[in-house]
Specification:
Layout lengths: L1 E6 L7 H17 L2 E4 L10 H6 L3 H11 L3 E5 L2 E2 L2 E2 L1 H10 L10 E7 L7 H13 L3 E2 L6 E2 L15 H18 L2
The protein binds flavin mononucleotide.
Amino acid sequence: MKISGICGSLRKNSWNNILLKIVLNKIAKNKKINTEIINVSNFPLYNADIESIKTPEDVIQAKSKIQKSDLIIFSSPAYNGSYSGVMKNIVDWLSRSPQVLPDKNALVIGCTPGMSGTLLGYTHLNQLLFGLGVNVLSQPRILVSSINKKLDTDGNLIDEDLELLIEKSIETILDKITI
Ligand SMILES: Cc1cc2nc3c(=O)[nH]c(=O)nc-3n(C[C@H](O)[C@H](O)[C@H](O)COP(=O)(O)O)c2cc1C
């Protein structure tokens, strides 16, 4: 089994990337499952002119990794009451032929230093993926408010409740995708 992650923030110290890493590392360590964060940082802004010449190599590589994964975890920041534009651009590239998203298992997660827990962004991204035929898991929900108080500056979890939520969530995820 393989579980991969995609982050919708390009920021070096992105909380969403740290959260994704924590979840994937716990899956790899506790469940001995192969995990990877797919590099999407060099995807250009979608432009059909670029695509008509050649699909960028990073997009081809990412699609190949998705094809070989049993679950994709999408971790996106909340931007203006939705998910990030970076994430939309990633999904736009990934949605192009040859299709790799339909029927793929996916889970959306997210975190914010604010109080919203990224709920609107989570809902919108679920809707986008559902429309593309992705098998989006409606549970568990790893949506985190005040993330800056739950991780230290090195990206270590310092909040017991969040650690417990992530551990329980991993059990739920594996139950759902190994049926
Ligand atoms: C353009 C913009 C819009 C934002 N809108 C929201 C928002 O609607 N809700 C929220 O909780 N945080 C919002 N934020 C704060 C981000 O969630 C915060 O910067 C977060 O740390 C970004 O994710 P990252 O750390 O993974 O890069 C916004 C930030 C930016 C730059």
